[in-house]
Structures are given as structure tokens and as C-alpha cells.
Amino acid sequence: MIKGFRGTSLVDFPGKIASVIFTYTCNFRCPYCYNVELVNPEYYQNLETLPEETILKELKRRKGFIKGVVITGGEPTLWGKKLVSLLEKIKVESDLAIKLDTNGSQPELVKFLIENKLIDYLALDFKTSPKRYGEVGGNFEKVKKTLFLLEKFLENSEVRITLYPPLVGFKELKEMLPFLKGIKNLALQKFLPEKTLKEERVKPYKLEFYQKIHAYLEEKLPEVKIWVRYE
Ligand code: SF4
Question: What is the pTM of this model?
Fold first, then answer.
């Protein structure tokens, strides 16, 4: 399940120094995805799988210094019971706060994790307008359910939108707006034209465009804290 581990991160868990666990495989195919090694089987089958025990030991060793652990991917929720078991062990052995990054495709599992207090922070990627979800290989009805679940966390959650020009412009944002009304935090992420899943030349928006989008969303979502991540 685990193909990567970063011992210390200052940027992946808001307000906490955290370790990051990378799971592999994903059921979406976002063209701008830069975790190609974790999504494309051609790459991840050649990556070493890290034993869970090693990761749990590493977390214990860092306890006192790190305050949290981020589970990211790929799409971690595809691991179902294996993910549940890992989170339970982290809670019992290290008692760290857990942040889960998800594409929102497995609301039933997210509900279970919330109800069993196995996650403390939820970050959900909202990819594009509902009617265009098929283009990333997703089912918006599932994502919508996860969005409603996320609202339970309010302070301890964020929705993230990657401003990838072919999938997210003003038209799409307008159609995404009704689903953002109940959230608390919204992170707008710049698209980075690095090594991506779909090898194509896409130019990111210019700085002024990010500012325009930011101002537009602030006007439409006065209750939501919005920030732009430029890296
Ligand atoms: S959901 Fe995330 S990991 Fe999966 S393809 Fe999209 S960006 Fe990549």
C-alpha cells in the first residue's frame, strides 16, 4: 500500500509539523496529476513497497517532534480496510493527528473514518464542474457526498481546487459554486507544468488571472476563507 514516506514536512498539514505517507494507485486520471509514479502502474510496480511496520516505527521515533501525519497518494481511500487498520495503528501507537487527502470518490469509507475518529483533518480535491467530472474519470455524485461529510469538520478541513486551465475556468467555477457554500476553507492551487500524467503543453494562468479568480470567489463565498497556493 505504501510507496513513499517523507519524515518531516512543514507544509502538508496546516499548523502542524507532520510526516507524509504516500499510498499508490488512483481511480482518477487527472491530466495535471504530478504524482505520476503513484498513479501509473508502469511506474509504481517498479517502486519498492514500504512495510507498514517500518513506517510505524519511523512515526514513533519522530513522536515529540512531529504532531501529525498526512496520508496522501494516489488515492488512499482505495485501500479500504488496509487503510483503516493503518490509521488505527497510528492512533494507538503514536496518537498523532491524521490528515487525509482524498479525491472524494469513496464517501462510505470517509464516513467510517469520521465516525470512528480516525481522521482529524480532511482535504478534498474538487476537480472541475460536476458535468465535466467524467473527464478526470470520476463520478461527481460520490464526490458530492464526501463534500457534505467534509462540512462536519469545518475548521479542520479544506477543499482544494487546482486551477488547471483546460478544466477550471470561470464557467466551471460558477457551476462549482453551489457546492462550496457550506465549506470553511478553500485552497486555490496553481497548476505546475511539470511532469504530469497527460504529457501535454498547458500554460498555467497568469498571476493576474489568479487574483481575479480569488476576488470573484471571495465575493461569492463571503463565509469561506480562501487562499491561493502558488507552489
Ligand atoms: S486524484 Fe490525485 S492522485 Fe489521482 S490522478 Fe487525480 S491528481 Fe493524481
Answer: 0.95
Number of CB atoms found within 10 A of residue 193's CB:
14
Cell numbers that stand for 40 in this block: 501509473
Quote the domain boundaries for residue 23.
2-229
Distances (CA, A) of 51 to 29, 48, 58, 182: 27, 9, 11, 39
Domains held by the chain: number: 1
Question: Which amino acid residue places its CA nearest to atom 7 of ligand 1?
Answer: 33
- Of 21-35, 41-55, 187-201, 212-226, least confident by mean pLDDT is 187-201
Closest C-alpha residue for ligand 1 atom 3: 74
* Bridge-based pairing state of the strands 157-163 and 225-229: unpaired
C-alpha of residue 64 to centroid of ligand 1, in Å: 32
217 Cα to the center of ligand 1, angstroms: 24
Q: Give residue-wise pLDDT tens across range 49-95.
A: 999 999 999 999 998 899 999 999 999 999 999 999 999 999 999 99
- Cα–Cα dist 180/160, whole Å: 11
Length of the chain: 231
> Residue 135's domain is classified under what CATH number?
3.20.20.70
Query: Cα dist. 99→12, 148, 153, 206 in Å?
Result: 9, 17, 12, 31
Q: Which ligand 1 atom sits closest to the C-alpha of 138?
A: 1
Q: How far is the CA of 211 from the centre of ligand 1 (A)?
A: 25
